[in-house]
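Input/output pair, single chain:
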Amino acid sequence: MILRERETDRGTLVAVCDDDLLGETVANGEVSLTVTEEFYGGEAVDREAVAASLAGASVANLVGTDAVGLAVEEGFVDEANVLDLDGTPHAQFLRY
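Output:
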């Protein structure tokens, strides 16, 4: 997975995508998402690093089977809130 962290005025923003999705566009009807290098590009990391990053995130944006699956397994995202974009899972969370 590819992980990128940014500090914002509202805390840490974490973006995670599956390795093979960088540069791809996924869609479902009128909703589409382009997995850009600018937003998602970062460091290739393992599951433990992603879980640790999500634990400290104020906001997270996740795309891909591995990234979203990990967030669901670790309890950061409820599976009922996962969007399906042409077979690719996408989820976000916001923690106050």
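The first strand starts at residue 2 and ends at 8. Strands lie at 2-8, 11-17, 25-28, 31-34, 43-44, 59-63, 83-85, 88-94.
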